[in-house]
Specification:
476 residues, alpha+beta, 18% strand
């Protein structure tokens, strides 16, 4: 009996030890499953269902739900079918090999940041679409690729020997911060050009730069906030309202609750003032960001031996502030723009005001650009940017852009200034570096123009509560 009990305990111990050893995932779980990487087909052997899901996502289609857009109905929007104030439209600048006079490659097209191998995406599931997915762009470290031309077609091809690529594929895993930043930090043509709050420094930031992503802070990954399910990634913003996930909203309150402070007064502020407003005092802290882009002028870049539109950069920028309720007014490229008395038009703006119980005061990067439009239709004209980079001839680039996007050459175009309020959400400072009362409440000299925000004056000095003032009930 005693011997049987000891034997049983030994067997149980071995089973527990065996299970523990098996349950602990290896560092590189794919190493034992991939002995040869032969392109996307290698991944599809086990992950075809995941690939089918990915085909329908914003990261592949560059189109998504417009549930948060107030002025566009019944269609999807995104990079694919709109124009923007940076490089205009990616679909007419998709892929190619552009060289300068020295024979150096200076551009390969907007698909450099698309998770595909060069084919323009279509929203259907077939072999062509499945085999166009480039899984390693998001899931592998050390992976690089370049454009080649084969049989008259451009496509993205991995760089490296078969053995090197197999070693890279064996180490695939969930997307890391580096995977996400490889595209998002260079949006708009260069480091931090576009967003203003996504700088190369985020790869390994000090704590006072970003308390969430610093190794000495929370050491968070992008996907800790931008959760994903079925390759649909959570998030979006005031100027980027296209979303993959429509039944869940990404917000600071998801982790910090609606009353994150010890101070009741600060918690009362949180009903009206977004977390980002106080906790991101400035953006473009180390890398200057594009604040105005003029496509009616070009400048020669001697270092790159290429031309660029005239861009005004700024560093350590204080945000502008506006009400936002989570909805956006977005200019549909297929509809006419409306010029204001100042000759400007809105490309994207947050929706909300002081009387809107769902709105809070958020920080924004206010960006302007000088963009071409057709005076006959008042529609914006995307630009063939490669012509600008190569020759500096912006007139030719605009005419070619109209031909590529609308199917007709438009020679009698005009220019107007676009306005875009771009949400600031990253580079959260430690609490001791957050804004103080005096930053906003200083005899009319603070950061916020209270009357422009709808208040009769400084709410602290006038003891004004917007909920009492307009008889609205706050959301608890």
């Amino acid at each position: 009996m005693k011997r049987s009990l000891i034997s049983a305990l030994m067997v149980l111990s071995l089973l527990v030890l065996s299970w523990t050893t098996w349950a602990k995932p290896p560092k590189y779980p794919h190493k034992d499953f991939i002995d040869s990487y032969d392109g996307t087909q290698t991944c599809l052997g086990c992950h075809e269902d995941e690939a089918k899901n990915f085909i329908h996502t914003v990261h592949y289609q560059w189109l998504g739900s417009i549930k948060n857009v107030v002025n566009v109905k019944g269609e999807k929007l995104g990079k694919a079918n709109t124009t923007n104030d940076f490089c205009t439209n990616p679909m007419i600048n998709w892929i190619g090999i552009l060289k300068n006079s020295r024979g150096q490659v200076i551009a390969q097209g907007c698909s450099i940041c698309h998770a595909g191998l060069g084919k323009k995406p279509q929203d259907k599931v077939d072999d062509a679409e499945l085999n166009n997915i480039d899984c390693l762009v998001c899931h592998a470290q050390g992976y690089k690729r370049h454009v080649v031309k084969e049989n008259g077609q451009f496509k993205w091809v991995p760089i490296g020997t078969h053995e090197q690529l197999t070693a890279i594929a064996q180490k695939v895993g969930m997307p890391t911060r580096a995977n996400c930043l490889r595209c998002h930090i260079k949006a708009g043509g260069g480091p931090n050009f576009k967003r203003g709050d996504i700088e190369p420094t985020l790869k390994n930031p000090p704590r006072n730069f970003d308390v969430h992503m610093s190794a000495k802070g929370m050491n968070m990954n992008c996907t800790d906030c931008h959760w994903a399910s079925g390759h649909r990634i959570g998030g979006g913003g005031a100027d980027n309202p296209v979303v993959d996930v429509t039944d869940k909203t990404l917000s600071c309150e998801g982790c910090h609750t609606n009353a994150p402070h010890k101070s009741p007064l600060l918690n009362k502020h949180a009903r009206t003032v977004a977390c980002e407003t106080c906790h991101i005092p400035t953006f473009a802290k180390q890398y200057a960001t594009d604040m105005f882009r003029d496509w009616s002028k070009t400048e020669y870049n001697k270092k790159r031996d290429s031309y660029e539109p005239e861009i005004r950069f700024q560093k350590n920028v204080k945000p502008v502030y506006a009400w936002w309720n989570g909805k956006t007014w977005y200019q549909d490229v297929h509809k006419p723009i409306k010029l204001g008395k100042d000759g400007k038009f809105v490309l994207s703006r947050p929706v909300g005001d002081i009387k809107d119980v769902h709105a809070k005061i958020y920080p924004f990067k206010y960006h302007e650009a000088k963009l071409p439009y057709d005076p006959a239709t008042m529609q914006l004209i995307p630009i063939k940017v490669g012509i600008v980079f190569k020759t500096g001839n912006w007139k030719k680039a605009i005419i070619a852009g109209a031909k590529a996007f609308y199917g007709k050459a438009i020679k009698d175009f005009k220019f107007a200034i676009s306005q875009r309020w771009m949400g600031i959400y990253h580079e959260v400072a430690p609490s001791n570096n957050a804004l103080q009362c005096s930053d906003c409440h200083t005899d009319g000299k603070g950061r916020i123009d209270w009357k422009a925000m709808g208040y009769p004056g400084d709410p602290m000095r006038m003891a004004t509560d917007r909920f009492k003032l307009f008889k609205i009930k706050p959301i608890e």
